[in-house]
Amino acid sequence: MKAAEIRELSTDEIRTQMDEAREEIMKLRFQQATGELVDYTRLRHVRRSIARCMTILNERDREAAMEGEE
Fold first, then answer.
1. What is the number of domains present in the chain?
2. Distance of alpha carbon 27 from alpha carbon 48, whole angstroms
3. 68 by DSSP, 3-state: which?
4. 3-state DSSP assignment of residue 2
């Protein structure tokens, strides 16, 4: 999912998506450890998806903090 698409989601939806991505990366790591993983690029995509979600959540937290200071 692209950053612009993630920004359109609510904060709760982003957290839900991030939790799902974390579960998926855990499953992918398990598959890698057992030798069943075929598409190794999927690990990279899921990691980056988690990073995008975290970045957008941090942006929203900073914006909320800035509004609170004013």
1. 1
2. 16
3. helix
4. coil
pLDDT in tens, 15-68: 999 999 999 999 999 999 999 999 999 999 999 999 999 999 999 999 999 988
Who contacts 21 (Cβ-Cβ below 8 Å, separation ≥6)? 46, 49, 50, 53
Report the distance separating Cα 8 and Cα 14, nearest Å. 9
Q: Give the residue numbers spanning the domain of 28.
A: 3-69
The whole-angstrom separation of Cα 14 and Cα 32 is 26
The structure tokens 């398990």 sit at 30
Q: Is 3 helix (H, G, I), strand (E, B) or coil?
A: helix
Residue 38: CATH number of its domain: 1.10.287.310
**pTM for the full predicted model:** 0.88
Q: How far apart are CA 15 and CA 17, in angstroms?
A: 5
